[in-house]
Amino acid sequence: MNSTPQLTHTREELAQALSQLEGTRALVMTMGALHRGHLELVRQAQELADHVIVTIFVNPTQFAPGEDYDAYPRTLDADMEALSTVGADLVWAPSVTDAYPTPATTRIDAGPVAHILEGATRPTHFAGVALVVSKAMNLIRPDVALFGQKDAQQLAVIRTFVRDLDMPVRIQAVEIVRDSDGVALSSRNQYLSEEERVHARSLSRAIDEARAAAALGVPLDEVLRAASSVLEAEEGVVPDYVAIVDDDDFTLLAGSGSAAEQVDEDSREKALEAAATQGSLRARILLAARVGATRLIDNADVVISVAGGARHE
pTM (2 decimals)? Predict the structure, then answer.
């Protein structure tokens, strides 16, 4: 039977608790307001290590002025109760001063992957993510860290700086968990009204249409349009971008909305030429849109045909 994990707040409490854990460690980083997607991360973490450590911290350095840092839900009691059902061993829920004993002046820039799409919309976001993830890695020293595929660009950023900085941790992606209506689970979903929730289903429908188009072998830009047209036709939904990236290195291959000007044609052509010998390219379609006042993101893998004339219109 599962039990409530040990809760720590200060660095000293965390260090003392970690000293009692023998064996390998898996880390799951969250900002709280836990849902089934977070719990799936913990479940899979249990299969990969002897002990699972969960962080619960709304990290201020990844929020820009005017974003929802102050309004972001903080539900520690409910989060601890939820974690007791899946068997986490230890929770670190620091205050801001515990996480940042001195004001942070270090900036970690993961390079081009951090400056397109979400990085262009939220220019300081990924530097804040990289900083807090690095701090947690250094304090907890996990053997493996698990991150949800829903935040695909965040996952790519983390993989990049972990690789480049030779951090001794394996990064494990966990597939998106969706509700019965197809909407990807997110802590921000609770901001949606009942009517907005219905409109939010258009994001997963857009992805389904893009994947169906790709399965027919149509050109890259037609795959993009298949998704964009769903969002543009949906009442109450304002698309920010739809984009297709190389799933290996996050090269931006095609984009609409705010992503349209971010495509580097030389990088796009190199990626497509490299994949031409295989006849197809492992890609990922990503989209962001406002549903009412709430900004949502979603993504999925997609196989793009690059054989013969299927590359271009």
Answer: 0.94
